[in-house]
Amino acid sequence: MPFPAPFLARFGLLLVLFGAFASVPIQSAIAAEQSTSEQSSALMNASVSSIDFIVFGDVTPALADTPIDWWPAVFVLIGIISVLTLIIGLKLNAFLALILSAILVSILVGFDTGAGMGERMGAVVSAFGNSAAGVGIVIAMAAIIGKCMLDSGSADRIVRTAVEMTGEKKASLGLMISGFILAIPVFFDTVFYLLVPLARSLHRRTGKNYLRYLMAIATGGCITHTLVPPTPGPLLVAAILHVDIGMMMIIGAAVAIPSAIIGLLFSIYSDKKSPIPMRPLGANDDRHQPLEESKLPGLFASLLPVILPVVLIGAGTLATTLADREDRASVLTTDIEDFDLLAQRFASATEKSPAGRILSSELLNEKQRSRLTNAAKNDGEKEAVVAVINEALLDPEYYSQEAFADVAMPDVTAQLMKADQVRMKPVDRRRMNRALLDAAYPELIAAQRWESPMRKTANSLGLWSNPNFALLLAALAAMLTFKIVRSLSWRELNVDVEESLMSGGVIILITAAGGAFGAMLSQTGIGETIQQYFSGQSASGIAILLLAWAVAAVLKVAQGSSTVAMIVGAGMIAAIMGGEEPPFNMVYVATAVGSGSLMGSWMNDSGFWVFAKMGGLTEAEALKTWTPLLATLSVGGLITTIILSQILPIAG
Q1: How far apart are CA 544 and CA 206, in angstroms?
Q2: pTM of the predicted model, to two decimals?
Q3: What pLDDT score was predicted for residue 619?
Q4: pLDDT at 160
Q5: Which positions, given as ranges, span the membrane (predicted)?
Q6: 3-state class of 445 per DSSP?
Q7: Helix (H), strand (E) at residue 535
Q8: Residue 366 CB neighbours (<10 A)
């Protein structure tokens, strides 16, 4: 089908931008085998040409019509050059390189915005703390679980059982399927932590294919993490693009399965081409001799550290998903006391009033605003009124201090306002704004009834399904099994636990520093630059799938988080489409965004460091394996999405 020329020009520029961002990590991985001077030269040549293109290139007349600030793109490229030069070129410790690069990017942002240097350093420290808070306990517990499962023989028992069932040649397929299934209710990082001991034990048994086993786990875990709800990323993308959750699960899995198979084949190819040895993760990693099969723990005790957190986290995820589907924060027609008085309030509302904030919402069109200001005369019109209100309550800009100056801030609103607004689920955003509306017009609208039986069940599982607590219980189970099987004293057990925590501490520092670096890249405003470039444009058909994939890919390379790339990318695509429906179901736009969010994973992505450090790989090895693997999954997901959209459009 013919694509509009302005779209082709802009899509082409976006691909070149993506190439400029993504080429530096891959080139650096290849250059890792060269001398330090050759590495630095290659980095500088690649980066200078990219910056020259961005700053001076005149690709399309649209750039001249709308001035765009390209400095965010320059800052991102400087950050990429900095971290890769320090780690690969100068062989600096990854933690120091990431922190120094984060500070550099933060200072550049400060120069651009006029913020003080102390304030920018504080931003780095805050981002580091937030990242450490998210991964610290989980990684520490995972380190304990991994060492205890390996040294107690639990991992060996699981592997022996699996090999007996599937055969040695299909072991990597079993690991991929395990990661594929477990990553649907559980975050990828947690899944990888839990399955890495199995990969290491399997390698000890077979003496080969270590990289294949690691990449098989990553393949299964990554693809469902970005395509299949109730994982937060695809869940939020489905909400933004108004895709049914059930449809997202079905089509997401349909796209994920072929992509996972392609990823597994790529894993086999990578392992044959460039095998990587399994290295000790700690100084005394091999202190305990392998046990005879008769002395290995039972299968249930061996599986408990893996099954326990998956069951607990999965139960909490399921209960929360079911409670969210009830959408108890939505306004019902029975909640409105007087529709005539409500219409009068809207008709007389000023912009600086709670009702005026609804009328001025960018989520509404003129027809919807007119519906609110005219009294509803029948049930159909009443349903239309509450539908418009519910739509406006999803506006992240609803709250205004000036508009709600005379309204007491509800506790639930104050609490939710402190949460991450980018990753907030629509049901929570509506709850936050509904509480404000209830407080502003108590005589017109009945208070929301949030606490349903299912919501109470989800709340009761809040502690048990928390990943930190679930992995703590799993670590205790692994420790107890280790102590009993090896007949260790508590003091001897404590020595092993301390050794695992020492190795885990290094991983926490590096992962948190990577998170801080990614946060600083995000604060450059690169997302706004991309969005500004595509504002006012339109596309349809296959063109919108390519655009959705490319936007998410560039956002992923720029700031590191797949979830953020998916959420921001979906919002941008929704704005570009402007309410127009493609010739296929919107679920394919969602899977294109999810596939794009896998492209270009490198050192600003926490998943990169989890794969590298928990797997015992160097940075260059991770760039040569992890980054191309996720690129393969990303392209595979895009191709599958395009094919399915044409043969099974599910339009209407």
Answers
A1: 46
A2: 0.78
A3: 92
A4: 84
A5: 70-88, 95-111, 131-150, 171-195, 210-228, 235-268, 461-482, 502-521, 533-555, 561-579, 586-603, 623-644
A6: strand
A7: none
A8: 7
Helices then strands, counting H and E runs in the chain, come out as 28, 0
CA atoms of 644 and 238, how far apart (whole Å): 18
What is the C-alpha separation between 221 and 147, in angstroms, rounded? Answer: 21
Q: State how far the Cα of 172 lies from the Cα of 178, in Å rounded to an integer.
A: 10
CB burial string 192-203: b at 16+ within 10 A, e below = bbbbbbbbbbbb
User: Cα separation of 517 and 30, whole Å?
Assistant: 23
CB 561 within 8 A of CB 514: no
**422-479: per-residue pLDDT in tens?**
888 889 999 999 999 999 999 999 988 899 999 999 999 999 999 999 999 999 999 9
Q: Which one, of 293, 288, 189, 46, lies nearest residue 562 by Cα?
A: 189
Residue 22 in tokens: 């993504």
Structure tokens at 4: 């509009």
Token pair of 341, please? 């008085």
Write out the two tokens for 17. Answer: 């931008």
Q: Dihedrals φ, ψ of 650, to 5°? A: 50, 40
Q: What are the CA-CA distances from residue 63 to residues 17, 77, 529, 532, 543 (Å)?
A: 14, 20, 12, 10, 21
Half-sphere exposure of 466 (CA within 13 A, CB side): 12
Dig out the tokens for 223 from the structure.
């693809």
Name the residue type at position 251: I
* Torsion, Cα of 187, 188, 193, 195 (10° steps): 110
pLDDT over 80 (residue 21): no
Rounded distance between C-alpha atoms, residue 345 and residue 350, angstroms: 10
Length of the chain in residues, anyone?
652
Q: How far apart are CA 253 and CA 239, in angstroms?
A: 17
Residue 153 zone, left/alpha/beta (φ > 0; ψ -120 to 50; rest): left
Q: What pLDDT, on a 0 to 100 scale, did the predictor assign at position 574?
A: 84
- Supply the DSSP symbol for 434: H
Task: Please name every residue paired with 445 in a beta bridge, in sequence order, or none if there are none.
Answer: 336
Identify whether the C-beta of residue 549 lies closer than 8 Å to the C-beta of residue 557: no
Give CA angle at 569 (567, 572), nearest 5°.
Answer: 110
Cβ count within 10 A of residue 290? 15
114-124 CB burial, b ≥16 within 10 A, e <16 = ebeeeebeebb
- pLDDT for residue 209: 93
Cα–Cα separations (whole angstroms), residue 344 to 372, 373, 384, 467, 623: 9, 7, 16, 49, 62
pLDDT digit string (tens) for 271-299?
A: 999 999 998 876 565 566 666 777 889 88
Quick count: other Cβ atoms within 10 Å of Cβ 467? 21
| Angstrom distance (rounded) from CA 194 to CA 142 | 7
Question: Which residues, in sequence order, are CB contacts of 489 under 8 Å at separation 6+?
Answer: none
Q: Is-contact 76 42, C-beta < 8 A?
A: no
Question: Which amino acid type is present at position 472?
Answer: L
Q: Where does 348-410 have alpha helices with state H?
A: 354-359, 366-373, 379-392
Residue written as tokens 């596309």? 539
Name 336's bridge partners: 445
